[in-house]
Amino acid sequence: MKEQQEKYKVLLVDDEPIILRSLKVAIPWDELGLSIVGEAKNGEAALQQIQQTAPHIIISDIRMPVIDGITLMKEVLPRSAKLIFIFISGYGEFEYAREALRLGAFDYLLKPIDHDELVEMLKRARERLDRQKENEQLMLSVQTLSLLARERMLAEFTLGNPRPLQHLKWLENSELEGEYFMAVVRLDDYAALTAKWSAEEKHLWLFAVRNILEEWSLENGALSIFPFYNGEWILLFPASLNDGKRALGEQLIAGIKRYSKLNCSVGISRSTSGIDQLSTVYPLASQALYQRFYSGQAGVFLEEETAAAGNREVQYPKELELSLIESIRTLNLERMLTLFDEMSLFIEAQSLPQPLAERLMIEMSVVLYRQFEHLNTHNDWSIEGLLSKLNGLGTLPDMMNVLKTTFRDWLEQSHKTAAREDGRSIIEKVKRYIESNYHKDLSIEEVSEVADLSISHFCTLFKQISGYTFLEFVTHCRMENAKYILRSSNVKVYQVAPLVGYQDPRYFTQVFKKATGKTPTEYREEHVKQA
């Protein structure tokens, strides 16, 4: 069934009642998709009607008492430039009509009114309103796409992937060429919160926090804000605010607490410059947040202070950390336990005093706990519970035993969760969802929710099993369906684009030619000849 046409509102203005009555009954307003929302006897009364009814089209006599039609238009158009004026004039008022057109009127017609001529005029007016609406929707889509693409570009650079630079030159600006610093805002006890939230509640809470951060950022000079991991946002500030870092962080914590009742902590990096340094300062700000677990309460943690903490420089076992992360990501229990033994040997070989050994194990525990969060297995685990067990233990073997026991239990539970629905069936379910919704504006966040996986875990699993990236598969589905439509119907090319998820026909043509080597028209002509 054809979608019901939106009715545009029309205001009639004339000092002759007989003309108003004839306009109301002689024009097929419903068929034209128009609705009369008011009538006025002069321009002064029309001004009041315009404020009350907000019409799209005004049909007005050009000569009226009090305020004439041209004066009315001069008053209204500066505030409502898209308003369409159609004037009615007598034969002796041609100069007035020409002046009205010069000042922005859509058209005019002479008395006595030719109703068929007016109908055609109204059809053209409606077409203009439809185009204006389409352009507004397209502009909104472009603005939204630009914002999302820019956020994704910044996130990719933060992950250490510079490839977006090749494809998103049009999004770049110079704001990160000057010095800036990064603040990582992370909700406290996020795993515990998500365990009690439904999927809808989680979406609403994260949306609310993002809105709070965006509004606060606009008022406090942030260069940019974008979500990173679940429950975590990145804010970038100019280095000119460097002296007020702690105050900025405290304001962020207070604002989120005030408006959402949620607790968060903030880690802040040193200053740097250049978009390619995002991946360098993110670990610094993130590591500063480890101090959250030393302090036992929410707060602002500066990377400079974290780096200066401790009585001795410790060589952090980064390779060991990466190997442990990989063992958790692949749910390899035996490998994980072996690596914990290697960590114990490392600490012994360094002859670290107990405070430094505890610090290293706490930092490692936090990193590994975050990896379990990325697996998104929805178990009600608490890093605070683990750290409280470690606190006060007197020997390295006792501490390592707690670590191995706790992480073994978590890994085994994760393995059971993963076994309920193996990766291939998850990706098949996601592929079916994409194949049913490819014509919509699909986001990777939405599809990750369908998979019940974190974004990073979903991207890795989808590529491993399907051989496509998320975007590649969406484009593949769109192109296959576009080819089918072109082969099997006479639908015009520009009409095919929105059917397969593209609002801009020109962009659709570019993507289609890149995928097939032919324009949509060339592809259709070739298959028509073959048939």
From TrEMBL:
Keywords: DNA-binding, Phosphoprotein, Transcription, Transcription regulation. InterPro entries: CdaR_GGDEF, CheY-like_superfamily, Homeodomain-like_sf, HTH_AraC, Sig_transdc_resp-reg_receiver, Tscrpt_reg_AraC-type_HTH. PROSITE patterns: HTH_ARAC_FAMILY_2, RESPONSE_REGULATORY. Residues 9-126 form the Response regulatory domain. Residues 428-526 form the HTH araC/xylS-type domain. It comes from the Bacteria. The keyword Nucleotidyltransferase does not apply. It holds the Pfam family GGDEF_2. The keyword Transcription applies. CDD domains: REC_YesN-like. The modification 4-aspartylphosphate is found at D61. PANTHER family: ARAC-FAMILY TRANSCRIPTIONAL REGULATOR, HTH-TYPE TRANSCRIPTIONAL REGULATOR EXSA. This is Response regulator. It comes from Paenibacillus rhizoplanae.
